[in-house]
Amino acid sequence: MGQITLNKVTKQFGDVQVIPPLDLTIEDGEFVVFVGPSGCGKSTLLRLIAGLEDVSSGQIKIDGQDATELAPAKRRLAMVFQSYALYPHMSVRKNIAFPMKMAGIDRETQNRKVEAAAKVLNLTDYLDRRPGQLSGGQRQRVAIGRAIVREPAAFLFDEPLSNLDAALRVNMRLEISELHQNLETTMVYVTHDQVEAMTMADKIVVLQKGVIEQVGSPLDLYKEPANTFVAGFIGSPKMNLISGPQAQKQNAHTIGIRPEHIGISSTEGAWQGVVGVSEHLGSDSFFHVTVNGLADPITVRASGEIGLHHGDKVYLSPDLTKLHRFNDKGLRIT
Ligand code: ADP
Ligand code: MG
Whose alpha carbon is nearest atom 12 of ligand 1? Predict the structure, then answer.
C-alpha cells in the first residue's frame, strides 16, 4: 500500500511562502513525477512528504492515516538521493544491508533481502565489491537497493540521475521504469527534466512557484496543456507560442502550435519566412524560421532528409486542427 494525500499543505521559510495551499493525491502503485523549473519547490514538496521538513499548515495522509506529525522513519517511505551517499569502505552487500542492520534485523533475513534486491537490480555479481569499484549507474542502483530492502510504502526520488552522463541517464531511466513495473510500489520522482517526466510518469505534476499548474498523464499534458506555462514546458522542442494578429484571427490572445505540427516547403504554404538556425539530428531536423509579421522565430520539426539550409526562403503550413488557443490570462480556451 502506498497512497499519499496532501490536504491544503503549505510551507513557509521565514516570511517566504514557498508552497501555497496545495492539494494532491498520489494513488497506490502510481509513478508520479514532480516537474518544474529549478527553485519551484519540488524538493521541498518531496521533503514534506518524507517528513524531512515540517509542514507550516495542512495535512499529509499515508494510506488514509494522518502522517503529518509522524517522524520520517515511521512513514515507511524510502528516499533515494541524488548524491549516492554510499559508505566507500563497505562492500555493496553491507551498503545495501545497512538500514536493516540499524533496525536490528537478523543476519539471515538481511542476506535474503540483499540477495533479492541485488537480483532485481542486476547487482548479484557485485555484492563483494566496494562502491569505488563500480560505475556511476551501478552505484545509483546500490542506493536504490538500500531503499528496496526497507520494503517501503513508496519510493521518493530527488533528481537521482542528474550526476550521470547522458547515455547512462537514458539507461537508468529505463531501469527505474522497469523496477516500478516489477515492484508495483508507489514512486514519487522529482526532476527538472521534462523528458524524464514524459518518459517515466503515469502522472505528471507540473509545478511553478510552488503552485500546481496541471496534473495529468504525459499525453494529456502534451495534447491539452491547461495554460501557456505547461504548453511551453512540456514537449521538446518547445511549442511555438504566438500573440498578436495571427492569434486574434483565431479568437485567442495567444495561439500555440507544436514544431511537429507545422509543414515546411520551399514552394507553398500559409506563412512565408527565411530559415535561420537549423539543427540536424539525423532522424529529425529542427528549423528556426523567421516568419514575416511574427515577432519570434518559429521552430519546425521536419524529417532528417529534408535539404533546407540557413538563408533559404520557405513556406510554413501550420496544421490548424492541432492549434492550441489561450486567453489573455494564459488559460486554455476549450
Ligand atoms: P526545487 O527543488 O524545485 O529546485 P526547492 O524546493 O529546493 O526547489 O526550493 C524552493 C524554494 O524554497 C527556493 O526558492 C529555495 O530557495 C527555497 N528554500 C528551500 N529550502 C529552504 C530553506 N531551508 N530555507 C529557506 N529557503 C529555502
Ligand atoms: Mg530540488
Answer: 18
* Nearest ligand, measured from the Cα of 44: 1
Q: What percentage of the chain exceeds 70 in pLDDT?
A: 99
Domains of the chain: 4-229 (3.40.50.300), 238-326 (2.40.50.140)
Atom 22 in ligand 1: residue holding the nearest Cα = 13
Kindly provide the b/e burial profile for residues 303-326, where b requires at least 16 CB atoms within 10 angstroms of the residue's own CB. eeeeebeeeeebbbebeeeebbbb
pLDDT in tens, 44-65: 999 999 999 999 999 999 999 9
State residue 82's pLDDT score. 60
- Most ligand 1 atoms within 8 A of CB, residue of 12, 15, 44, 205 to mutate: 44
Residue 110 CA to ligand 2 centre (angstroms): 32
Name the phi and psi angles at 28, rounded to 5: -55, 130
Residue 167: pLDDT band with limits 50, 70, 90: confident
Number of other residues whose CB lies within 10 A of the CB of residue 243:
17
Alpha-carbon span 179 to 181, nearest angstrom? 5
**Per-residue pLDDT reduced to its tens digit, 76-103:** 999 987 656 789 999 999 999 998 999 8
Confidence of residue 241 (pLDDT cuts 50, 70, 90): very high
Residue 41 CA: which ligand 1 atom is closest? 6
Is the C-beta atom of 39 inside 6 A of ligand 1?
A: yes
